[in-house]
Design a protein that fits this description.
The chain is of the alpha+beta class and 311 residues long. It is built from 7 helices and 13 strands.
């Protein structure tokens, strides 16, 4: 299982969402049209309705048991977990029935499994709700972006930075390369990017991309290069580009002060990616190259992120 965890604001309070990344490409799985929600009430929620460390440890243990028992009982897929508002909701998708000769309704099987777990975990009795959700709307609506493919690309690149030892926190300049079909579109794009707080760095031709032969580089200081901060900035520029017939090609960030020293070939690799665009030498940053277009293979390329226990 590959999970992504992120905070959201709901009703003025912080909730933590854990979302099953590796189910995305196959969703909705219409062989499992029944949504089963297992709801746990928190015993000692904080001001945001989140568990403290001690209760969180209990919930982790319960979650592992719940995951095994519901999947085993219902042939289900564990897809989503939302913690906040004084409760934790585990969402599974299951077929309508299970069994060969004596088929049983999966919601009934889930209720039985939850009751059995209540004996093992009396501090957190579970309540089970179910509904028809053939399109997996609950799962898909919880996705953290309006552009899944770009999100996966950005997640992969941020994950590579983290794996290389980069400190993602703290303000950092992020540069973006945007390609346009003509000079007029590029100028409109530069004006729109400036209005969003981006500094225009350079304009240059792209000789081997006739459909998008007019490149623009911009940059802006972001509060951090964590995914939930960086991705909205990318979407802002992608929307500008697409509205003018262009594309957001890539973003790049210089290594943090605490990142390990780059290997001798790293700068050349970053420069060669730009050279492929026909960029002049003075447009080539020595920062870490993050070619988002190269990561658009989807879920299989997404970086596995730590499943935060508080989610």
């Amino acid at each position: 299982m590959i999970w992504d965890s992120y905070p959201i604001e709901k009703d003025g309070r912080t909730h933590h969402v854990a979302w099953r990344v590796d189910l995305f490409e196959g969703a909705p799985d219409r062989t499992r049209p029944v949504r089963i929600d297992v709801i746990l009430t928190l015993n000692a929620p904080d001001g945001d309705g989140l568990p403290d460390d001690a209760e969180n440890a209990q919930l982790k243990e319960l979650r592992e048991a719940l995951e095994y028992d519901i999947i085993e009982a219902c042939d289900a897929r564990y897809a989503l977990r939302v913690t906040g508002g004084g409760r934790q909701v585990h969402t599974f998708y299951a077929p309508k029935a299970k069994g060969f000769f004596r088929k049983k309704r999966t919601p009934d099987l889930a209720v039985a499994a939850a009751k059995a777990l209540a004996e093992e975990f009396p501090s957190h009795p579970a309540r089970v709700e179910h509904a028809e959700d053939e399109e997996w709307q609950r799962f898909l609506d919880a996705f953290p972006s309006t552009d899944p493919m770009q999100w996966f690309a950005d997640a992969r690149m941020v994950g590579q930075l983290a794996q290389a030892g980069d400190d993602l926190s703290g303000p950092r300049e992020v540069a973006h390369w945007i390609l346009f079909p003509d000079e007029s579109a590029r100028e409109q794009g530069a004006e729109a990017a400036s209005a969003e707080g981006f500094e225009v760095l350079e304009r240059f031709p792209v000789e081997d991309a006739p459909e998008h032969g007019f490149a623009l580089t911009v940059r802006r200081v972001e509060p951090s290069v964590e995914l939930m901060v960086l991705h909205p900035a990318v979407l802002t520029l992608a929307k500008i580009a697409e509205g003018l017939g262009g594309v957001h090609h890539r973003w790049e960030v210089a290594p943090s002060a605490h990142a390990p020293a780059a290997a001798a070939g790293d700068d050349d690799e970053a420069a060669s990616a730009l050279a492929g665009l026909g960029a002049p030498k003075d447009a080539m940053s020595a920062g870490r190259s993050t070619n988002a277009l190269g990561a658009l293979g989807g879920m299989a390329n997404a970086a596995s992120r730590v499943d935060e226990e508080r989610s």
